[in-house]
Amino acid sequence: MIQVRNLKKTFGPKVAVSGVSFKVEKGEVLGFLGPNGAGKSTTMRMITGFIPPTDGEAIIGGFNIVEHPIEAKRLMGYLPENAPSYADMTVLGFLSFTAELRGLSGAAQKKAVERVVEMCFLENVLHQSVETLSKGYRHRTCFAQSIIHDPEVLILDEPTDGLDPNQKHEVRTLIRKMGETKAIIFSTHILEEVEAVCSRAIIIDRGSIVANGTPAELKRRSAQAGAITLRLGSGSAKAVAAKLDALSGVEHTMILSETPLAVRAFPRKQTASDDLARAISEIAMKEQWSILELHTEEGRLDEVFRTITLPDTKVSGKETK
Amino acid sequence: MKSVITIAKRELTGYFASPVAFVFIVIFLMLSGFFSFMVSGFFERGQASLESFFAWHPWLYLFLVPAVGMRMWSEERRLGTLELLLTMPVTPWQAILGKFIAAWAVVALALGLTFPMWLTVNYLGNPDHGVILAGYLGSFLMGGAYLAITAMTSAMTRNQVVAFIVSVVLSLFLILAGYPPVTNMLVHWASPSLVDGIAAFSVMTHFESIQKGVLDSRDILYFLSVIVFSLFTTGVIVRTHRAG
Ligand SMILES: Nc1ncnc2c1ncn2[C@@H]1O[C@H](COP(=O)(O)OP(=O)(O)O)[C@@H](O)[C@H]1O
Ligand SMILES: [Mg+2]
User: Fold this and answer.
1) What's A90's DSSP letter?
2) Distance from residue B70's CA to the centre of ligand 1 (Å)
3) A22: contact with B, CB 8 A cutoff
4) Please, what is the Cα angle at B88 between B83 and B89, to 5 degrees?
5) Rounded to whole angstroms, how far apart are CA atoms B117 and A188?
6) CB nearest to B87's CB, from A73, A87, A129
7) For residue range A26-58, what is the model confidence (pLDDT) as tens digits?
8) Nearest CA of chain B to the CA of A134: how many Å?
9) Are strands A76-79 and A153-157 parallel, antiparallel or unpaired?
10) How far apart are alpha carbons A215 and A198 in whole angstroms?
11) Spatial CB neighbours of B231, under 8 Å, sequence gap ≥ 6
């Protein structure tokens, strides 16, 4: 549905996006991650046809955004960063206006407006002018605008920015639900959001894609992915760590805390973590440790994010051998 | 065309939701009345014509029209709605036309509301209705020309004050190039043909000739070309200078 090939944008001497390529199909929610200034918004602005790319192309449902902008834009809904809207209009006026620009009129327009008003919980502010709304409502008004024509492609630039936790949850639920039938790209710097909503994530840093995969795949790139964490009710952490170190499958161990006792063992191979867990539970039985917790680390997205977006200050060497 | 109307409608609601249109209309009516009656001595002249009324229009428009048009694109930039508008399935031309038509309609409305002037001269005597109609047409076209220039400057900046000042300066130039006190002075410095050439670019030259009741296609063409040229430039600016 969305095909981006080697998209590039320079502002004068500054390279904002340098050769980004990816694809999003219907039924996919692609999370766009990256530190501030990575080029997320610039990429989205090129895909939606707001700014022309310096090089490369974006194809929406078969239409090149530069060559057939109108056809491509018809298929797309877009929530720009900071959710702009016309301050002097009422919520109803604004939504009717955008519906009309999307070619909806009469009863169809009324129905479309009613649908998004309900989906975005805007009933209470329908006749209020946009400038008098709180940030959360303003955000949802602009979000409502982006889905008013039930588009096949949805581009959302930081859709949960500035919302309170409840609103964030509502918007995430909405995105996940819509993602079943649409091709969605959304950008965020909230990592838990990616795990909660995305079927796939791209991490972009300084204009280039540095990682692309499902949230689980990305997490596996984390240093602690596959490590076994063991928490015991009693005993000496040093002694437990020494016992674990002696196991053949263990690469190294790390004492997380003395009391309560918590030790983490890293397997030699990430794929061998199940074998290691088995070996550890056998020792535990033999030594009669009272196990409070034994689990395999999935890895943490924030750690992956930090390591690959800041390669110069790689966090490592904290572990004790 | 449908999108042009949709955008024009939105702009008009914008003008009337804020005090812009109201203030423009009231001030225009008050000032045009004040200048024609008090300064030009409308009654004392004892003529059943609107000459003294129209004569002030180039100067009134100089400040009032940029005040109406300055928000046209600057405001979209400032609010960030330009990004919304240009990612809708509309072409920049539809947006430019829709906005321009709405602003021009506000000017037309203000001009239309001066009809009591027409009634007054009718009461005073037997005016030449053709001349008056030509005067209105000329004034309407001149307002459109100023407005198109304002659209252009408004597209350049997110700051309405900057847009206002630049359009006043550009419009002032278009007035002065054919303003008799200036042309009379210029004759001392340049050849008369050059002065005439420069004056041909002035709104004054063309507005005055339309006001005399002579509907010369060249005068009408002049105003239309200022409008087309300025809106075309607006399009180029909007297309090339979208973000930022
Ligand atoms: N209109 C512009 N002119 C100049 N530089 C820009 C412009 N827009 C974005 N940039 C630069 O491009 C880089 C990427 O910005 P952006 O795409 O907004 O990042 P993100 O959305 O990931 O935070 C930033 O360094 C920013 O300063
Ligand atoms: Mg951004």
Assistant:
1) B
2) 27
3) no
4) 145
5) 61
6) A73
7) 999 999 998 888 999 999 999 999 999 999 999
8) 16
9) parallel
10) 7
11) B96, B97, B100, B148, B151, B152
Pick the residue whose CA is nearest to atom 24 on ligand 1: A37
Distance A15 CA to ligand 1 centre (A): 9
Q: How far is CA A296 from CA A113, A170, A283, in A?
A: 48, 31, 16
Extended strands (E) in chain A: 2-11, 14-24, 29-33, 55-60, 63-64, 76-79, 153-157, 183-188, 200-205, 208-213, 228-232, 250-257, 261-267, 291-296
Give pLDDT, residue B44. Answer: 67
How far is A199 from A180, CA to CA, in rounded Å? 10
What is the per-residue pLDDT for A311? 58
Q: What is the DSSP letter of A124?
A: G
pLDDT at site B244? 54
Identify whether B192 is preceded by a cis peptide bond (ω within 30 of 0): no
User: Going by CA atoms, what residue is nearest to atom 16 of ligand 1?
Assistant: A39
pLDDT in tens, A88-129: 899 999 999 999 999 999 999 999 999 999 999 899 999 999
Whether the CB-CB separation of A197 and A30 falls below 8 Å is answered with no
Which mean pLDDT values do the consecutive 10-residue runs of chain B (244 residues) have?
93 90 92 80 69 87 94 93 95 95 96 89 84 92 96 94 95 85 79 80 84 85 95 93 66
Residue A264 contacts residue A227 (beta carbons within 8 Å): yes
The nearest alpha carbon in chain A to B10 belongs to: A97
| Chain A residues close to B7, C-beta within 8 Å | 101
Distance of CA B167 to the CA centre of its chain: 11
Coil, strand or helix at B145 = helix
* ipTM score: 0.88
Name A208's bridge partners.
A205
Chain A residues touching residue B20 (CB < 8 angstroms): none
pLDDT of A216: 82
Instruction: Scan residues 160-179 of A and list those with Cβ closer than 8 Å to B.
Output: none
pLDDT in tens, A3-22: 999 999 999 899 999 999 99
| Cβ neighbours, 10 Å, residue A250 | 21
Q: Which residues line ligand 1 (CB under 6 A)?
A: A 11, 14, 16, 34, 36-42; B 243-244
Q: From the candidates A45, A86, A139, which should be mutated to test the interface with B, based on the most B CB atoms within 10 A?
A: A86
SS3 A265: strand
* Percent of chain A residues past pLDDT 90, beyond the cut: 52
Q: Does A108 touch chain B (CB under 8 A)?
A: no
Q: Which residues of chain B approach chain A closer than 8 Å at the C-beta? A: 2-3, 6-7, 9-10, 13-14, 17-18, 79-81, 83-84, 86-91, 242-243
Residue keyed to tokens 């056998």: A282
Q: Write down the pTM of the prediction.
A: 0.86
